[in-house]
Amino acid sequence: MKQKILFLSYILVLSFLITSCKNDAIEVTVSEGTNMAAALSPDQSTLAMSLQGTIWTIPVEGGKAKSVTDEMGDSQEPDWSPDGGKIVFHSYRDGTYHIWTINKDGSDLTQLTSGTSDNREPDWSPDGKSIVFSSDRSGNYDIWKIDLSSKELNQLTTDKANDSNPAFSNSGTKIAFVSQRDESGIYILENGTEKLAVPEAMRIAAPSWNTDDSKLSYVAFTGKTMLFDDKNTSYIYLANLNDGSTEQISTGDEDLFPFRINWASDNKLIYTADGHIRKRIIGQSTIETIPFEATFTLNRKPYEKKKYDFDNTEDHKALGIASPVVSDDGKKIAFAAKGDIFIQEIDGKLIQLTNDSFVDLEPDWSPDGNTLAYISDRGGIMNVWLHDLKTNQSRLLSKQIIEDTSYPTWSPDGKKIAYYTQNYMKKWGYGILHIADVASGEVKVANKTVWVPSKPSWSPDGKTVAMMALKAHSTRFREGFNNFMLVSLEKDTTILVSPDSDKPLGMRVQNGPAWSPDGKTMAYTKDGTLWTIPVNMNGEISGKERKLTDELADNLSWTGDSKTIVYIATDKLKQIDVNSGKVKEIAIDLKWKTEIPTEEYIIHAGKVFNGKDSTYQENMDIYVKGHRIRDIKPHQNHKPGTKIIDASGKVIMPGLFEMHTHQSSNVGEKLGKIWLSYGITSVREPGADPYDALERKEAWESGVRPGPRLFFTGGLTDGTRIAYGLANSVTEANHIRMELERAKKLGYSLIKTYVRMPDSIQKVLTEGAHKIGIPLSSHELYPATKYNVDAIEHLSGTSRRGYSMLLDANFRSYQDVVQLVAKSGINITPTACLRTGYFRLAKQYDELLNDERNRKFLTPEFLQGLYAQTNKFDSLRTPKADANYKALLKTIKAISDAGGSITAGTDAPFAPFGSSLHSELWVYVDAGLSPFKALQSATIQAAKVVGVDKDLGSIEAGKLADLIIVDGDPLKRIQDAMKVRTAIKNGKPHTIESLLY
């Protein structure tokens, strides 16, 4: 624990040293809270309250809240010591949830648990000698107890299902807890025996005992989760332990929070709901509110923003060197760039192997060096192709492959190829390992689905395939560590092994495990750097790990003699001699230029929505010269020979921004066309394999294939646990420094932190990002708004807590959320279409799915799946689901009305690329925003948030010519913004016909 505290002290010192500017404090006072918990002191004089990650106290009759903890701990779910002198709570202060105590006056902050396991939901014993809590330290959530004198830990439950929310009886002889066992409900532990006391199929939160221990109160939810579920209704129940009966004492109209209820007497309950602290007398309909006021102080600091040069015509070094792989003889590197396959002879010439309009990616050498396997969309789907280097001809690996593929990898004998298939409609992100016979094309499924696996790697005897896969710490939460997954092709079994049980390994993409050809070593990344570890012939670990580099390493591949590893080192390709540690740079002389047209033309616009004014300019001429708007004037006749784009019966708008999507070049050439066909000329990507993103960006900007502007980042910068394949655990000071350096060298437009990132490190990353002029975005509200985080992704995003600080289980947000967002100036991208909005609108508006772009770009199976999901959703709609959805819309409207910054994004491909952005705008109008305000969220406001509003986001003389021509009247009917006839990106027109046919 001391090492971790010292590390965090170092982080805070580093934070202090980073350059900052003078700031003005902003005070935000709120009288409502979202998902706050309250605990009544033993003398019933005081309430301890967790509000936005801070523990506060208020008098029991209400009043001004006083903060007991600081804001940096994500402190939740308080409980009192029996003498009323201390408060216990769980806190994420050191990057793992642990049990902490503090005196009620804010002194003597003490950490009770330590280690890499999460510990939650503490409850103090009546005798004051111990605390019970839930913890995943045994592989799933169980009930544990800590003796406060000896600090000894004892595990109280051992069932394989998750046990949580323990509560001591007043006598101290029993512990009630929630369990997700086959017979789910509330169990009581007494004298070492566990008994199901309250069977309950609904999701239960936090049981608590009445004064004589004859009853239990609890909150139950009808949905599948207490995070978000549009079908959720919440109720208070009382369970009579004497006769086994249960009584529902609330009507379902209250928006109850999932926390322990306080028994002030045998008939008086104090709890949190509807943004307030409530007091209820059992058997009476009257509910009292205990008022409070809590004041947050925000320290927002201005910083100098990154400057974008959109007029640069010079050569750029290609940084989108995707999936480089060394040949067995160590003499050549194959890689993908700008949609084609290249071979770089080490210290020799660069050879372009493919040169066509298709997207060719992920090359892999055959052992004899005569053939490259790669994936390409040349056949309509992303399939595996084989390129014979002697004949310079490519052929399809197998006609049996009918779904998109990724990561083809040759077996050591050259007779087989391992690859994954993916079907995003059936199950997003899951890859199914297949083995194809190269000669016959026969394909066999080798393993069950794996969530976002890494590139596979073969054992020397071809009997085992290794990949990186997630091992969750429990089934209660999805986060965990990356492990080596070893798939036995003979036994049809899998095992998970890891070189470090206390840390996640690197991003799963192409960062190992890379099995050495001699079978003795696995290479992988950890803390951003390159490591190796000895293994046996089955891939099981047989020795100690060894660190090879002090610089970032990505995309690992071995030479055939097992002596050298080739890797990407931030913006360079390098090779390292495994034995000596000698490093050599591999030069790749590949360049590209931004495509900047030279043509001049005039657009005769019937109406112009310029992005800033709420009304149209009518009958206007827009003069375009090259890639910029030269002038905007009332329409006039022009001399013969002048190039005119006749849009006299149409509306001209700024090109749209999609502010939240996660892409993959594996979608193929159609991806860029999808965006443009829906009028989207700029895309913000808050989470990507940076080299995959750069491949896209450079292909689109150079004009190799059509597509929007791309504002991107690298992986999801996360904490000590991760989930997604793109999640990058960044917790060490040197790794933080290297990632900030990578952001600068690769030209990131933002840094995105993810849900397990503790505030102490997120604060450092925020200041580091600002130092290089780029914003930082996260899922967090507070204290992110205090220390200058720029943006929030999702109103209903994933949370490490199991509940959100932005939106509760019934889709409600309260004054704390609205005011902190609006007054801080932080931007929020709600991605509301994810929360049933897309399918609601698809049922309401046939044009969302019944569209020529869907028929062109989506497979029939995928489109049929969208229709099926739409119909399924509609068949399951309930009045409560509709009410919860309207509550979500109410929050969006409240933030907008309060002056908050909202931008439109969708988290595509969770909703389809392109059409989902329009559904998001439709959601905003359904929420009560005007079409004008909705369109601004995808034009000028989006440009401001990205930092490019001097060049983009509105139609003004001197700005870049990113424009769209649409039919209809989008300022009156928002759906008409989807009626795109031409998209002009960087001055180059793309008609809908040219994009579709």
Short description:
With 997 residues, this protein is of the alpha+beta class.
Q: Characterize the biggest β-sheet.
A: 7 strands, mixed
The count of β-strands is 70
Average pLDDT reading: 95
Strand content: 35-45%
Strand arrangement in the largest pleated sheet: 56-55-54-57-68-69-70
Low-confidence stretches: 1-22
Structural class: alpha+beta
The DSSP helix count reads: 14
Describe the structure.
With 997 residues, the chain is of the alpha+beta class. 16% of the residues lie in helices and 37% in strands. It is built from 14 helices and 70 strands. The strands form 18 sheets. Strands 56-55-54-57-68-69-70 form a seven-stranded mixed beta sheet. Strands 63-64-65-66-67 form a five-stranded parallel beta sheet, with helices on both faces. A four-stranded antiparallel beta sheet has the order 2-3-4-6, with no helix packed on it. Strand 31 and strand 32 (350-352) form a beta hairpin. Helix 1 (2-17) runs parallel beside helix 5 (759-771). The longest helix has 19 residues, at 879-897. The protein is globular, with a radius of gyration of 29 Å. Mean pLDDT is 95; it is low at 1-22.
